[in-house]
């Protein structure tokens, strides 16, 4: 079927990197009749050892979108990932993987250039590919060269201004169509298990970690939040989202299964999924099953009515219990360092012998010698030889000439296409892009017409419905005639009018300018209870436990003012320490007014009631902090490792970033000051205090040292407009700083003896 090919192409854009050979013959879509589908195998070299999708069902009633539900079901997704070093080097797969990565990078760059070209064409500038970069930066005092002969009139092949209204209408139609599809879409995902196994980091203590999901569903509901099917007359969309049995584990010193057969691996992945009735005994869970629910309210016509938000999303999570043991923490540290070593070892994998070290010294010495010689010595010696430079220049010229033919010819011969593919295998991304730039500029300067990008056979077009609403070149000639060029080729005028009416679409529809005060999107997240526990090992009393009660966050957006507001509230939080003398000491406790939140944070961009660009307000109630010596020492010991952590790649990236910061000049600093955002910061912290017992453990008979932090207030000072013209560097530096008023009151340090009666009254 035509639509099976279209949807298969759509899924390939998202799953093509992971699902093998997804096409219309494998994909049994219930587009017209509701057929059910089979599984596809995942096999990504050097990353995925085994994987499987049990069932993927997609039912799309294209001819009755306004009367039936779109149903998507995914049952069983299992994935086992292993380190690349644990898989034997395969030159053919390695080369294929590198070429795939190269082509993806080239496609990404070409897509970015195409978007820039389209923007330039609409704004009246002559842009194709990198022509704007060729003539954009002109040195001072140097006149731009005019090309009267070739640039007097824009090329027809690049004039996209006539297409803009059609594209806008098409996008609006797709938005309307998406609204109708979303109205009755039903999604159900069950039995997900993604697992990583590693016996390379520490062969004596293999590790594994993973995520499992019991069920995730999305259903359409009515005003009472009861699941149902909305009829055509309903304008408001209600969605119920349920999450069940989401968990994560990190196993230390465990058995690995990646050496087994594919069937055995998949059977084990299926048996290890956690549910409310089945808990795998061999897993060391970081957090136990999480269940959550969400209510989604959508009003497609809200921007016209301006009475309710367009989208209002309420999410509630009952309980999140996170637990971490010291072996798990040390395993995480070891894995970070191991990954860093794997990255550094990647260039030498092809020379590595897969033999035991102690009885095969000759092969391992050869591995070390070949790695140094081939990667660090011979490669650079050959790179800068005259023969290699000459060969490289010939390859670049050949590629440039072949690509010029591709730019100007409507039909490319198989010989040229093969030549381009072979040269792209040899050249790197930088040189390919450089040659393409040169080819584009030379074609433009010669006055030849550049063929449209969409005419390329074998090149992917962007957009979800590119193969459905626009022209599509199929890989198979027998399918080419089946793909409809436009919606008019798929439906009769009567069917098209009926579809437009059903989804509320009009070809004259246009966007409205929204008021600045209108709130279009709201998302509310409520975490009823959250706890974080660290302990020395499983079934041992915890060293530290942090409990967070009543954490709520609300994010709202005002598109008319390009404003975003984030509000967060914390009702209570408690920290307890290591059990001593049959007492669990309290380290942190909320002691403020129960009528107000313990902590309240508000951040807003482009606020309504302020001249600043951003506002940040922080308010807090009093907190009691008690020092406990054994708990603090145990926490410090918990996070200590016998060996230091050496992450060379992370360090290199950090140092490069610091060098970039150092290179900023006074001119750049002036620009930052004149264009910087003004922040209105207001902080108000009620008096909290710290209690230090004399013996290091707080009890009724201990002497106390009490530090009262007092009240803390910080408010931004209005600095007015920042003008830096005719200012010295010192004045510029002075204006680069924000200024605040800071007020600290009633700070005091007290010593209280155990026998003093006023101690309890003070506390």
Describe this structure in a few short sentences.
The protein is an alpha+beta fold. The chain contains 21 helices and 20 strands.
Radius of gyration: 32 Å
Backbone shape? globular
Determine the fraction of residues in helical runs and give it as a percent range. Answer: 25-40%
Q: Unreliable stretches, pLDDT < 50, 5 or more residues?
A: 28-45, 123-171, 454-485, 508-512, 758-763
Provide the residue-averaged pLDDT.
76
N- to C-terminal distance: 77 Å
Task: Explain the overall architecture.
With 763 residues, this protein is an alpha+beta fold. 33% of the residues lie in helices and 26% in strands. The protein has a 20-stranded mixed β-sheet that branches. Helix 19 runs parallel beside helix 20. It is globular. Pfam families: VPS13_N (PF12624). It comes from Equus asinus asinus. InterPro entries: VPS13, VPS13_N. Keywords: Transport. One of its GO terms (biological process) is protein retention in Golgi apparatus.
Throw out a few tags for this protein.
20 strands, 26% strand, 763 residues, alpha+beta, globular
């Amino acid at each position: 079927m035509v639509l099976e090919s279209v949807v298969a192409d759509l899924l390939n854009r998202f799953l093509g990197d992971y699902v093998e050979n997804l096409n219309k013959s494998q994909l049994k879509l219930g587009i017209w009749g509701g057929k059910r589908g089979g599984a596809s195998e995942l096999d990504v070299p050097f990353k995925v050892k085994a994987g499987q999708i049990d069932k993927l069902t997609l039912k799309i009633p294209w001819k009755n979108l306004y009367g039936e539900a779109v149903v998507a079901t995914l049952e069983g997704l299992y994935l086992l990932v292993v380190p690349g070093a644990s898989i034997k080097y395969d030159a053919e797969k390695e080369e294929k993987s590198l070429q795939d990565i190269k082509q993806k990078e080239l496609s990404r760059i070409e897509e970015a250039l195409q978007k820039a070209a389209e923007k330039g064409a609409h704004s009246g500038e002559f842009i194709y590919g990198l022509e704007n970069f060729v003539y954009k930066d002109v040195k001072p005092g140097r006149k731009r060269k005019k090309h009267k002969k070739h640039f007097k009139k824009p090329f027809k092949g690049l004039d996209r201004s006539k297409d803009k209204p059609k594209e806008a209408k098409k996008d609006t139609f797709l938005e309307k169509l998406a609204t109708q599809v979303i109205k009755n879409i039903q999604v159900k995902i069950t039995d997900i298990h993604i697992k990583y196994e590693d016996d390379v980091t520490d062969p004596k203590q293999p590790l594994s970690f993973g995520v499992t999901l019991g069920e995730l569903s999305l259903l359409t509901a009515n005003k009472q939040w009861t699941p149902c099917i909305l009829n055509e007359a309903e304008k408001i969309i209600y969605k119920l989202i349920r999450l069940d049995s989401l968990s994560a584990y990190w196993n230390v010193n465990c058995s690995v299964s990646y050496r087994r057969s594919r069937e055995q691996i998949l059977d084990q992945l299926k048996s290890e999924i956690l549910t409310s009735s089945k808990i795998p005994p061999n897993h060391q869970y970081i957090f136990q099953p999480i269940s959550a629910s969400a209510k989604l309210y959508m009003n497609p016509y809200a921007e016209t009515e301006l009475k309710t938000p367009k989208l209002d999303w309420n999410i509630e999570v009952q309980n999140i219990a996170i637990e971490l043991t010291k072996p798990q923490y040390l395993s995480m540290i070891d894995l970070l360092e191991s990954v860093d070593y794997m990255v550094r070892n990647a260039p030498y994998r092809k020379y590595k012998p897969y033999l035991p070290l102690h009885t095969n010294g000759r092969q391992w010495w050869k591995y070390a010698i070949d790695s140094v010689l081939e990667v660090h010595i011979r490669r650079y010696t050959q790179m800068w030889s005259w023969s290699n430079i000459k060969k490289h220049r010939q390859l670049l010229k050949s590629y440039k000439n072949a690509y010029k033919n591709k730019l100007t010819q409507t039909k490319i011969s198989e010989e040229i296409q093969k030549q381009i593919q072979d040269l792209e295998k040899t050249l790197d991304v930088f040189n390919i892009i450089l040659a393409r730039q040169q080819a584009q500029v030379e074609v433009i300067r010669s006055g030849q017409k550049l063929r449209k990008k969409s005419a390329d056979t074998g090149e992917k077009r962007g957009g979800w419905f590119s193969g459905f609403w626009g022209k599509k070149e199929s890989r198979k000639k027998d399918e080419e005639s089946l793909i409809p060029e436009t919606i008019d080729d798929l439906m009769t005028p009567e069917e098209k009018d009926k579809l437009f009416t059903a989804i509320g679409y009009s070809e004259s529809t246009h966007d409205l300018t929204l008021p600045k005060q209108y709130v279009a999107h709201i998302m509310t997240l409520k975490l009823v209870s959250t706890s974080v526990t660290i302990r020395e090992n499983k079934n041992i009393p915890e060293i530290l436990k942090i409990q967070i009660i009543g954490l709520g966050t609300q994010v709202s957006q005002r598109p008319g003012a390009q404003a975003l507001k984030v509000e967060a509230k914390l009702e209570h939080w408690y920290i307890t320490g290591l059990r001593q003398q049959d007492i669990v000491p309290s380290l942190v406790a909320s002691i403020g007014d129960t009528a107000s939140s313990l902590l309240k944070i508000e951040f807003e961009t482009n606020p309504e009631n302020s001249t600043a660009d951003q506002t940040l307000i922080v308010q807090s109630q009093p907190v009691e902090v008690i020092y406990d010596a054994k708990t603090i020492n145990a926490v410090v010991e918990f996070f200590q490792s016998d060996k230091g952590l050496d992450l060379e790649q992370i360090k290199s990236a950090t140092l490069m970033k610091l060098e970039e910061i150092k290179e900023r000049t006074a001119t750049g600093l002036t620009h930052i000051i004149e264009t910087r955002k003004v922040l209105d910061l207001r902080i108000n912290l009620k008096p909290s205090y710290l209690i230090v017992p004399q013996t290091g453990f707080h009890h009724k008979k201990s002497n106390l040292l009490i530090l009262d932090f007092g009240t803390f207030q910080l408010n931004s000072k209005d600095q007015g407009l920042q003008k830096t013209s005719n200012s010295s560097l010192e004045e510029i530096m002075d204006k680069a700083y924000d200024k605040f008023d800071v007020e600290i009151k009633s700070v005091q340090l007290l010593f209280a003896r155990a026998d003093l009666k006023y101690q309890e009254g003070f506390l």
